[in-house]
Design brief:
The protein is an alpha+beta fold. About 20% of the residues lie in helices and about 30% in strands. Strand 19 and strand 20 (about 315-325) form a beta hairpin. The model is unreliable at about 1-20 (pLDDT under 50). This is S41 family peptidase.
């Protein structure tokens, strides 16, 4: 019999890191215990010929891609980047047939400064091939001591081979980032489902408490802890359940969300992409099912499995897929992903969701035709059908909001009795789109208030 200090703790694979309390297995010889653990806990039945392989790594390689047997050294290298401090080049990785694929690059890190891009496949590290290697095996090769250099061979989508020499450095990755977009729409980026994510999320929601709507961005978020997914679900009013877990030979169990005192108020847009995985998909499928958010982006990664960690006396660790997760009502995620409500082009998710949030806010306003090919130095003229009392014209009567960005500061000048001119203080940004909003805050000479506000999209050439 296997003596365990505690029940295995289910966690979700994060493409950046895995770290949690894990089961300590008292065993002098890990190989036999690996076989026993797989037979007892692995989510699917395993053929005998796989269990009879001669090493732990060979056995686990016959399982799914997310089950990994790590030596003590590999495990120590793997957890060096947990949550607060990373020494390396600053990339989030996943397995690939040719090596390891970069799914996101940490802003301002060494990889970012060297020009690595999402989608790049690292095929060699210092001349060592990564073909067929796991993430856990690749990390010690790519990572290393601060201020040392590593040479990467990279393949881009167009099959061009690139060689880059990158100096490793200490990288700080925030779990939660927040800012207020133009039109008073709160934007929160959740980079991982980590230990402190709920605490940081609460601080972000509090900071943006006056927002009229929220955009929660989990693009490129590779996952994290199961408990963090429960906690994040608790920020959404009415979301009482977090997910459904199905373990081997057990009745499916529905896990509750962890209620949060601080709630996200108003309409919510959730952004996902093909690199939103695991805990991100757990949150996305749940919010979509319960209609707690409108999903924007592209179909997510499709990792609907959960892993348990088992540590052996020799310091090695078995990360084993022990369950699959579903939405509370049973919608599958594994190998299918989560389909957004609104499919957008890549990198258009924030702009599209921000635009829709603003239209919700200005639902009673009249839309005007889009202005195309607008110059960066454009001055807008707004002409009314009657003579107006411009003395009551306030600074907030007209707004120019960059879609996906902040509000552009403008000056408003009276041109004549029926017209005003709106001039951006700084040039507009080429290639960007804006929303010009005229609020119903004006009266004509007869003291009759403007009936409706108006808005129109502005596309800068």
């Amino acid at each position: 019999m296997i003596k365990r200090r505690m029940q295995p703790l289910l966690v979700l694979l994060t493409l950046l890191f895995v770290m949690m309390p894990f089961t300590q297995v008292s065993a002098a010889e890990p190989l036999d215990k690996i076989r026993q653990l797989i037979q007892q806990y692995y989510v699917d039945k395993v053929p005998e010929h796989i269990l009879l392989k001669e090493t732990g790594k060979e056995i686990v390689e016959g399982l799914d891609p997310h089950s990994v047997y790590m030596t003590k050294q590999e495990y120590e290298a793997f957890i060096n980047g947990i949550e607060k401090r990373i020494v390396g080049i600053g990339v989030v990785l996943e397995e690939s047939d040719k090596g390891v694929k970069v799914i996101s690059v940490i802003k301002d890190g060494p990889a970012f400064q060297s020009g690595l891009l999402s989608g790049d496949v690292i095929t060699e590290v210092d001349g060592v091939s990564l073909r067929g290697k796991s993430i856990q095996a690749a990390i010690p090769l790519i990572g290393g001591e601060e201020n040392t250099k590593v040479t990467l061979t990279i393949v881009r989508e167009d099959s061009i081979l690139i060689t880059k020499v990158i100096a490793r450095a200490e990288i700080h990755l925030p779990t939660v980032e927040a800012e207020m977009l133009g039109g008073n729409i709160g934007y929160i980026r959740l980079n991982s489902f980590a230990t402190n994510s709920a605490k940081e999320m609460a601080e972000a929601v509090k900071t943006l408490g006056s927002a009229d709507g929220f955009i929660l961005d989990i693009r490129n978020n590779g996952g994290g802890y199961l408990t963090a997914a429960q906690e994040i679900a608790g920020f959404f009013p009415g979301v009482k359940q977090a997910f459904q877990i199905r373990e081997k030979n057990k009745t499916p169990a529905i896990y509750p969300s962890v209620n949060q005192e601080m709630k996200i108020k108003g309409p919510v847009s959730l952004l996902i992409n093909e690199y939103s995985a695991s805990a991100s998909e757990m949150l996305a499928v749940n919010l979509k099912e319960q209609k707690a958010a409108k999903i924007y982006g592209q179909t997510s990664y499709g990792k609907g499995t959960a892993q348990s960690m088992f540590a052996f006396q020799d310091g090695s660790v078995l990360k084993l897929t022990t369950a699959r997760f579903y939405s509370p009502k049973g919608i599958a995620v594994d190998k299918v992903g989560v389909t957004p409500n609104v499919v957008t082009a890549t990198n258009e998710e924030v702009k599209a969701s921000h635009y829709d949030q603003l239209l919700l806010k200005f639902a009673g306003y009249s839309p005007f035709p889009t202005m195309e090919n607008v110059k960066t130095t454009k001055t807008f003229t707004i002409r009314m059908s009657k003579d107006m009392d411009w003395s009551q014209l306030g600074k907030r009567a007209i707004q120019l909001i960059e879609l996906g960005g902040e509000e552009a500061e403008v000056s408003i000048a009276v041109k004549d009795g029926r017209s005003v001119e709106v001039t951006p203080i700084s040039p507009l940004i080429s290639g960007k789109e804006y929303l010009l909003v005229v609020h119903p805050q004006w009266k004509d000479k007869s003291e009759v208030m403007m009936r409706k506000g108006i808005y129109l999209k502005v596309v800068v050439e």
